[in-house]
Amino acid sequence: MIRKIIKIDAKKCNGCGACATACHEGAIQMIDGIATLTREDYCDGLGDCLPACPTNAISFEEREAPAYNEEAVRKAKMHKGGELSQWPVQIKLVPVNAPYFEGANLLIAADCTAYAYGDFHSRFIRNRITLIGCPKLDEGDYAEKLTQIITNNNIKSLTIVRMEVPCCGGIENAARRALKASGKFIPWQVVTVKTDGQIME
Asked: Between the CA of residue 193 and those of 125, 146, 157, what are the distances in Å?
């Protein structure tokens, strides 16, 4: 059938993985550092991946493609395991230098966010190295260790996920201070999860 589907320009792709994270259907995978549409029947044609791409490597086209298979996507999500790719994840326990930090898209998240937001693994953990903490319960400040991680490793991007509650400001502030102290220019974003599990716009 002829339908609207995404097209990825591999020459423009910088390998950040943001599109794969934004694709809630799992149609895009990172292969050899390049975003690739691996399942045409998983692409719903809505384009959640387009605004996530920093290099405008993704566009729409109308062409022959299999129909969007919503049932297959649903089953794949049900049977898919977690997206976590490294261990440990606690900021206090993670080493400052580790091979998985090389070229990493780094996620710094407050503990509660993974419980409040139901699709946390596919939306945030997928294709990222994950660090978690709770500024209210953990002693000390994360900023010094996060500064060492960002300074000593080739971090490609930084995503901070926090709850809307005031105590979560501590993890956001620590990450912001670490990024500033590192002296590096790294694409970064803050995502706030509301207590009802919705993303704050």
From this structure: 15, 22, 20
* Tens-place pLDDT, residues 78-136: 656 678 888 899 999 999 998 889 999 999 999 999 999 988 988 899 889 999 999 88
22-27 mean pLDDT = 85
- Both tokens of residue 113? 């966010």
Residue 122 has a pLDDT of 83
pTM for the structure as a whole: 0.63
Domain boundaries, the chain: 2-79, 99-193
pLDDT for 81 equals: 61
Confirm if 5 and 65 have CB atoms less than 8 A apart.
yes
Determine the topology of domain 2-79 in CATH: Alpha-Beta Plaits (3.30.70)
HEC readout, the chain: CEEEEEEECCCCCCCCCHHHHHCCCCCEEEECCEEEECCHHHCCCCCCCCCCCCCCCEEEEEEECCCCCHHHHHHHHHHCCCCCCCCCCECCCCCCCCHHHCCEEEEEEECCHHHHCCCHHHHHHCCCEEEEECCCCCCCCCHHHHHHHHHHCCEEEEEEEEECCHHHHHHHHHHHHHHHHHCCCCCEEEEEECCCCCECC
